[in-house]
Each structure stands twice: as structure tokens, then as C-alpha cells.
Amino acid sequence: xxxxxxxxxDPISDPKKKRxxxxxxxxxxxxxxxxxxxxxxxxxEEVGSPDSFCIKPVDLNHFSEEDGKIYGYxxxxxTIWVSSISFHAYADISFESTSDGGKGIxxxxxxxxxxxxxxxxxxxxxxxxxxxxxRRYVKSVISTVAALKLTAANGHNGDSKFDPKEDTADxxxxxxxxxxVGHLYSRLxxxxxxxIDGSNxxxxxxxxxxxxxxxxxxxxHQEDSHPNLLGFAAVYRFYRYPDSxxxxxxxxLVLPPYQRKGYGGSLLKVLNNVAVSEDVYDLTVEEPxxxxxxxxxxxxxxxxxxxGPIQAALNSVVARLKQENFSKKxxxxxxxxxxxxxxxxxxxxxxxRRQFLQCWEVLLYLGLDPIEKYLETYxxxxxxxxxxxxxxxxxxxxxxxxxxxxxEYDQEASFVMYKSLNGDATNREMAExxxxxxxxxxxxxxxxxxxxxxxxxxxxxLKHR
Length: 465
Known about the structure:
This protein is α+β, with helices and mostly antiparallel strands. About 35% of the residues lie in helices and about 20% in strands. It has 13 helices and 18 strands. The protein has helices at about 30-35, 110-115, 125-135, 135-140, 180-195, 265-275, 290-305, 310-320, 330-335, 340-350, 355-365, 375-390, 425-465, and strands at about 1-5, 30, 35-40, 55, 70, 75, 75-85, 90-95, 95-100, 120, 145-150, 170-175, 210-215, 230-240, 245-255, 285, 400-405, 415-420. The strands form 5 sheets. Strands 1, 3, 4, 7, 8 and 10 form a 6-stranded mixed β-sheet that branches. Strands 11-12-13-14-15-16 form a 6-stranded mixed β-sheet, with helices on both faces. β14 and β15 form a beta hairpin. The longest helix is centred in the last third of the chain and has 39 residues, at about 425-465. It starts with a strand and ends with a helix. The model is unreliable at about 5-15, about 155-160 and about 395-400 (pLDDT under 50).
């Protein structure tokens, strides 16, 4: 970590002149993202180059434990380079002066270590040397394990119309388990903190964590060529009573230069393959972001579209929905898959019930062709499901109120519930709440309809390739 700054001293005041007492302005601080730039570099030549890859946006909430601001510096600039070879980091810091404006002076070294920990290198020369000394780091991590299959393992003999069309010849995925997980993950933690909102590091001392790394193969016959890490996923394996295991995807990240190229989907497909080939109970995802859920659903819908055991049930529901004026009496419970289909999907494809129901809505959309003719019916289905999920079945308690009552016993445990019989303020408040709920429900339905349409269009385009 390099630091450079210019210090200035106040001129000596004339002792004959009267001193004036003033109050300095309270330091408002500077947002970390206003003075910090982070670059991902793969060679020493890229360090300081205007063509270096700038990582943005980044989450710098971990930079300061207080409020994300930096205090006490004038014209502060922090440039951080992160190596994509060894994942070490070096920070160049410059500022004009420091002063305590009432908030103290931020300890920049400690703040940087909140994110980069032992990955932070003090001297620039040492950082540059690591491009050569650690150039085989990724290769050393994967050298003792076999690559996993990238081909589909769908658990059935469906047709191959949805088999991956992207070229995966240069890609490999490796599963890291045991002690090496901690060594590797400690170098990847800064990416977790900077690029996954609200994320925290996993407990690497728990042996049930596994790391799946996606790499680009080294170029054959080139001595200096090394495998390039494109992304990784952290998966937790836990026991399910009485005799099976479950896999839960805790974190997944494709490094910024390689995003939006299908690599995240490749990682998800490999995890599906592992779940099927090892016959775990199911594969779940912990609090997926919208972008991840979109890719996940797209992949699962493709798998389900050619999964024979659910076709009869799907065709039966679609046929009923196409009945005239069915939308006036449709209920979401009439349109869901039978329990036998849910179980077949879990056993064969390792898709859990919640995810299957998300995919089922897309399958119904695809089945109602032309969708424009049945759009009112379909929207009713989606609205009914979302209303049940968000508002719940017990949302009709209009007129009920809970009030505290004086007591010599536990005040928190003493209350009275009563139902108002008159059209008082309570009913007006409930009407307003109901109106707000309806508006929020409409917005949720609109968002869900857009997402379903987008996935359905992508599935249709793949089907007709």
C-alpha cells in the first residue's frame, strides 16, 4: 500500500495583531465510492495503464464500519489494483493534507484491510513481482482434482433441442473441498464483499462448504500460459434425514470482465449435473438475486420442457385453461401441478418445489398458445398466486383491532381484541390499506408477467434453433 501526500503549515501570525477566534466547519466526509477506483489487472503492464479494467459498481459499505464515509483528508484519491492472477491487491493513496474536522481522521490502512485483509500488499514492487511468482496459483489449486462434466445430466432421456449451443471446449469446472477451500476462498473474499450486495464470507472452517471454480483452459504448448479463473460458486452440503444430502448454493460470482457471456449459466448447469449424478435430495439457492433467479429459471424451464413425466399433467391444465370464460372462476390451486409431478421433478431433476412452481407458471404461459387469446385468464392465475404468497389467506380481518389494557401483571402480555360494528375510522383505515395492497399487488403482477414473458420468449427462441 503506497501513501503520498503534501503537508502544509500555517504561516506564523503577527504577534502584534489581535487573534481572532473562529469555528472550523465540521468535516462532512467523503463517500468511499467518490474517491476510490478499483482495477482488475492480469499483468504488471496493466498496472497504471489507462486501458485497465475498472470494476464498477462496487459495494464499499465494508470499507468503513461507521457510515461508509472517509474523514480528515483533503482531495483524497485511492487507486486499487487487484491481480486476476494471484488476487492480491495494492493501493496507491494520495491527498493534499489531513485535519480533524470533528470526525477524526480515518485510518485508511485499517479500512482497506476490512475488505482486502491479508491480500493487501504494502509495496508496489512486491505486488508487481507476484505476477510472475504467483502466475501458477490457479493451476496449483486445481492440479489435484479432476474436472467436472459440462454436458447435461438431466436425469431422463429427453430430446436434445435445449442442449447448450455455446462453445464450452475451452472451459473447465473443478470442485475444491477440504482444507484447500479456506486458502482459495480467503483470496476471493474481496470480490464477495465488493460485488455481491449484502454478502458476508462463508465459514471456511466448516468442512461442508465446497468451492466450484470455472476456469478457461491454458493454451496448449505455451509454457507461460496458465488457466484463467472466470468465476466461482460456494455450495453447502448438508444432511437430510434419514439418508440423503442436500446442496445449497450460497454464493456465485462471475468476475466482472467475463460477465454476460453465459459463464454463470455454465456454473449452474454443472451444479445441476452434480445434484443429479450424485442423487442428492435437491438443489436450492439461498436468497437469489433477480439476475441469478432469471438465469436459474431459464435453465430449469428448458429442462422441464422436455421432461416426460409432467407432460400429461401440464397438457391437462392447459386444456382446462383454454375453456371459454374460465378466467372468471379460475383459482391458482386448480392450475398447479399435481403432487406426483412435484415429486417426480424433485427426484429426477433435483428441482425443489418452490422453484418448480415458478417454472410451472412459465410452462403454462408457453402452453397457452396463442397467449394473447388467454392473457386475461393467465394474469388471473398469476395474480391469485402472488396474492396468496404476499398477502396470505387471512387478509380479510376487516374491523379487528388490538388495544392495550392497564394491568398489574405483564403489560406486554395484556391486550383485548374486538371487532368494530360501526363504520368508524378503523374501517376507513382498512379500506385505505386494502387500496394500497391492491396497488402493490398490481405492480408485483406486472413485474412477474414481464419476467415470465421474457423467459418464455428465450425458451421459444432456443426451441426453434
